[in-house]
Design goal:
377 residues, alpha/beta, TIM Barrel, four-stranded antiparallel β-sheet
Length: 377
């Protein structure tokens, strides 16, 4: 089966969150989301979602830089390469340094397109093995400890198998202590989003060993594998790396240095399925558990995260939660739901497995652009 890509359509939509979501680098109340639609010459289409944020705080990318990269560089390179399969997209875009979220949005759309043409579910097309995935939940920084405890209680009642709370300097150990005291048996982890420094904060971080955490996620700066290795040697709690792992090379270096014991794989952060699968295969071969992180995705991105989570080695509950946690109404049908036992049944329809609500997307669209792919061959 050879793809014959004909055009890429970009849309920006705006979705208000049901509740603000706060991390160490900011508070989000609405999401500007870049959707990518890839068409072949026979009229079939696939969907991707670029997870770049409104601001360059998680990494250097934003929705605006991703839009520019896609129209001015990604599309022309795909056209020049005459890409004939989804697996060729990553290599075709190698000339572009970084900008992985922009690449991932397009690559995801092409993988969905290819799975639909092959008439198979996307998760099977990428060689996933699970028909059901386990779910955790990520809870942003709350206005008070009481509000946090109330939020944790409701998420546990909803069935989520792992609770992750965001922390930052001044809102860390006391929050963990309060959650652990109220919920002594819950599987609990924390996410610092690079908010700490080993020179000043190592003693505080080591206090987290007292609370039986599943992991502490990305405590130090994204590029600092050496200091993460130093910190991991001083802590019993496993360190999980997120922002630090953007490629297979990063994963290999982190493992060789002992910088982490767990890896969070985000499709957008690593540049798409090809790199995500390479990291997953390496981690599996070296006994490193992995899980799928979230970026406050709408339904298309959430569906891709479900597919990714079916790969071997994704043994820990990911941040793939229900649509209703974030949105009054999602852009897919049916919305993603989580069972009372904290799991999601993987869809069996072709491609991402959910119907895209084109009418809702049209109503939410604030800009659009179509780029035609004219092969040089």
């Amino acid at each position: 089966m050879n793809l014959r890509l004909e055009r890429i359509e970009l849309r920006e939509i705006e979705l208000p969150l049901k509740w603000p979501f706060e991390t160490s680098f900011g508070r989000t109340t609405r999401r500007r989301i870049l959707l990518v639609k890839a068409f072949d010459r026979d009229g079939a289409c696939g969907y991707g979602e670029c997870v770049a944020g409104e601001n360059p705080f998680y990494n250097h990318e934003t929705i605006d830089t991703a839009w520019l990269m896609t129209t001015q560089y990604i599309a022309p390179l795909l056209a020049a390469a005459g890409v004939e399969s989804a697996s060729q997209v990553s290599r075709a875009l190698d000339l572009i340094r970084e900008n992985r979220m922009a690449k991932a949005g397009v690559e995801a759309a092409v993988w969905d397109l290819e799975a639909k043409i092959a008439q198979v579910p996307l998760w099977q097309h990428i060689e996933g093995t699970r028909e059901e995935i386990t779910c955790g939940v990520s809870i942003g920084i709350q206005d008070s400890t009481a509000a946090l405890l109330d939020k944790v209680s409701r998420e546990i009642e909803s069935g989520y198998r792992r609770i992750k709370i965001k922390i930052k300097p001044g809102k860390d150990v006391q929050l963990v202590e309060a959650v652990r005291a109220r919920f002594p048996a819950v599987t609990l982890s924390v996410d610092a989003n690079s908010a700490y420094r080993i020179e000043t904060d190592a003693p505080l971080l080591k206090r987290l060993d007292d609370y039986n955490l599943l992991m502490i996620e990305q405590p130090l700066a994204p590029g600092d594998l050496v200091d993460h290795a130093k910190l991991q040697r001083e802590m019993q709690t496993p360190i999980c790396l997120d922002e630090s792992i953007v490629s297979l090379t990063n994963a290999r270096h982190a493992h060789e240095l002992g910088a982490c014991q767990i890896i969070n794989i985000k499709l957008g952060r690593v540049g798409g399925y090809s790199e995500a699968r390479a990291i997953q295969a390496f981690a599996l071969a070296h006994g490193l558990p992995v899980w799928c992180g979230g970026m406050i995705e709408a339904g298309i991105g959430r569906a891709h995260n479900i597919a990714l989570s079916t790969l071997p080695g994704f043994t820990l509950p990911g941040d793939v939660s229900a649509s209703e946690r974030y949105w009054e109404e999602d852009i897919i049908e049916p919305p993603v739901t989580v069972s009372c036992k904290g799991t999601i049944k993987v869809p069996t329809s072709h491609g991402i497995g959910y119907e895209v609500n084109e009418a809702r997307i049209e109503a939410l669209t604030v800009r659009r652009e179509t780029v035609r792919l004219t092969s040089s061959r």
